[in-house]
């Protein structure tokens, strides 16, 4: 994830411009394809609505599709893997961050999900993300520099396990911290009977929340392993990218579709989820990326 200044050679600069324009066109095409997938999937799962509602959904899905493809583009062009592995490395962050972690949390925070419905939702909601991941893997092939990426550094299995578990544990205070910070904004809505009835919300015991959020932290850490395998370089760009993935997939895109929520509720959720993503990104960078980065630099200097 390093940046390179433009060369003084006009021909080389022109080639860079052409490549950049080509990448932008591919992202645009992928975003449109993703919007078509999301719209078709939405039509299959929703009852009939008026033309105004359909137009609103198309616009939301177009923005969502562009965000999905744009945020996964740096990962896609950095993956030097064979096609099936590239598809899996793109699908996992999308699905775990956008579906798995949220549905597991919703099972405990709403009254609408039974174990059977949860399993069916996890399977059913995977379909559009499978298709979007296929589109991204096809439209955004690896760059020439991706072929020399070193991949994840070798660690003992026990080392990986305790680091990933610690990321999950550290996510618990992160979750509580930002939930507390936005309480003045969201508190009134979670105690509004009409809003609670609309969302079918419930609040689980603190003991359940602590265990649940620790597991979600582990899920998020596992989902970012493909990113860590290819995004070598300075830690700050990596941290920003990890945070951006969480913010876009877990916050921006889902909140786009909550047009019936009060703006203050959407703002509170945006701030909370942004803080969560940043906290996770810091923990993942410190525990899973930096030690490998330091070792990689040491090996490079020794070589």
TrEMBL record:
The keyword Transmembrane applies. Keywords: Membrane, Transmembrane, Transmembrane helix. The chain crosses the membrane at residues 23-46, 58-77, 89-110, 116-140, 160-185, 205-231, 238-257, 277-294. This is Uncharacterized protein. It comes from Ktedonosporobacter rubrisoli.
């Amino acid at each position: 994830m390093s940046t390179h200044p433009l060369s003084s050679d006009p021909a080389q600069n022109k080639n860079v411009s052409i490549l950049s324009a080509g990448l932008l066109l591919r992202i645009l095409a992928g975003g449109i394809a993703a919007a078509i997938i999301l719209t078709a999937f939405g039509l299959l799962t929703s009852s009939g609505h008026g033309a105004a509602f359909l137009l609103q959904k198309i616009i939301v899905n177009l923005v969502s599709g562009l965000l999905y493809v744009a945020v996964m583009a740096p990962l896609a062009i950095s993956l030097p893997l064979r096609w099936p592995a590239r598809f899996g490395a793109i699908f996992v962050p999308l699905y775990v961050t956008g579906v798995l972690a949220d549905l597991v949390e919703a099972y405990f925070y709403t009254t609408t999900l039974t174990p059977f419905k949860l399993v069916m939702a996890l399977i059913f909601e995977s379909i559009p993300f499978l298709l979007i991941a296929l589109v991204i893997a096809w439209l955004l092939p690896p760059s020439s520099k991706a072929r020399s990426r070193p991949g994840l550094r070798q660690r003992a299995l026990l080392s990986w396990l305790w680091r990933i578990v610690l990321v999950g544990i550290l996510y618990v205070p992160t979750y509580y911290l930002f939930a507390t910070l936005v309480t003045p904004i969201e508190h009134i809505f979670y105690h509004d009977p009409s809003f609670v009835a609309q969302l079918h919300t419930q609040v689980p015991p603190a003991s359940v929340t602590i265990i649940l959020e620790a597991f979600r932290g582990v899920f998020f850490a596992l989902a970012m392993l493909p990113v860590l395998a290819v995004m070598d370089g300075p830690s700050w760009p990596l941290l920003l990218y990890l945070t951006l993935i969480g913010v876009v997939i877990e916050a921006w895109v889902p909140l786009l579709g909550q047009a019936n929520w009060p703006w203050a509720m959407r703002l509170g959720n945006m701030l909370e989820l942004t803080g969560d993503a940043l906290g996770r990104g810091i923990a993942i960078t410190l525990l899973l990326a930096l030690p490998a980065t330091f070792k990689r630099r040491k090996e490079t200097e020794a070589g």
